[in-house]
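Onboarding guide, step 5: your first structure request.
Type a short instruction followed by the sequence, for example:

Predict the 3D structure of this protein.
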Amino acid sequence: MYNREMKKTISAAGIFPVAMDEKVVNTYRPVTGDLAVFEVLELGKHTRIQADDRTHRYIYPGNQIMATFGARYASAQFEGYIPETPCDTYHILGQGGVIGRVASAHSIFEPIGPTSLKLIGYCLDEKGTIINTRYYRREPYKFTLANESRTFRTILSVGASMDSGKTTSAAFLAGGLVKAGFSVAFIKLTGTIYSKDVDFVKDKGACLSLDFSYFGYPTTYLVSLEELLKLYQSLLAKASEIQPDFVIIEIADGLLQQETAALLNSEIFKQSIDHVMYSCPDSLGVLGGLSILDSYGIRPFALSGLFTASPLMIEETRKMVSLPVLRLSDLDDPAVVRFFADAAPAVKTLNLQRVSQNFPLSA
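The system replies with C-alpha cells like these:
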C-alpha cells in the first residue's frame, strides 16, 4: 500500500495497515489518533521524525511518512489543531508523528514555519476500517484509585510551565530512590508523543517508564477529564504489574494548561497522589505557582527545576518559602527518601467515599 521508502513514525509503532483509502481524503473529517500516510511537501521546523523503532530519521520533500492526526499545546513551540474540514496541506506538529494545522508558533519558529504535508490516504485494518491508534488492540484497565487498594506511593511532578524542569527533576528523583533500594515506575500522563522523557527516566533507573502513547494516544491535548482519568487508571494499573515501591507521575506543560488544571482540580485524581514536587524556571514562578497549588489544596514536599541551577535564585526562594529546595544532586542522592518518611499529605483531606460516588471509575 505504500512504497518501501515509507518512514513510519513512533505514533504508528506496532501497527501494520493492510490497505489505504485515498478516496475519502477530501470528505472524511479525522479525529485524534486516526492513522494516515502523508507526502512531505516543504520542510520547516521539523526536518526529522522519530521512527517506530525510536531512532530519528531525516525527511525530505517527496518522502512518505505514516503518522497520526492530533492537536498540540506547546507554548515554546507550536499550537495546532485537527482542522474541521479537509485541507490541501497539513503540518507536522510534533516529531513523534502528530499531524494537524498550526494555529500559532513561538516567535523563534515564525520565520521557519512548520513542515507541510499532503494527505495521501487513511490506513485501513483487515475490516476496511480507518485505524485509530487509541487503545488499538489494547483494552483499558479496570482499576480503582482508592489509596487502600495499592501498595506503592505516588509522587506527582508538576511545573510552572513547559521546560521548567519537571522531567529532569522526576528522573533524578527516580535515580535517588533507586539508589536507596526502592523500585520506581514512571508515568507521563499528558503531553505530545516523543520518547525522550520516558527514555530519560528509564535510563536513570526506573524499572518501568511509559506514557500515554502506550495506549495509543499521540497527544492528550483537548482530551476530556473523564477520558484522562480512564487513561490514568490504565497506566497506573500497568505500572502496578511490576509492584513498584514508588510511581512518579508527570503531567506536562504548566499549571495554567487546561488538562493540567483540570487534573489538579479533580478530587479523585488528587486523592490518588501521596506527594507533589513542583518545578520552576525562576524564583518568582515559585511564589505564583505555590499560590495556585494552594488554591487546589495542594502542598508540595519540595521545590526543584531550572531555578535550582542558580545559587542566587535558590537564596531568593529560601528567603520567601519554607519548603525544601532540592538541586539535582539532592534528588539523585539516596538520602532523598527521608522526605517521604514523615511527609505531610500533599493534598488536604478529602472525603473518599463522597469522591467515589461523584466520580465513578468504571472503565
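Each response can be followed by summary notes, for example: Residues 95 and 126 are 28 Å apart (CA to CA).
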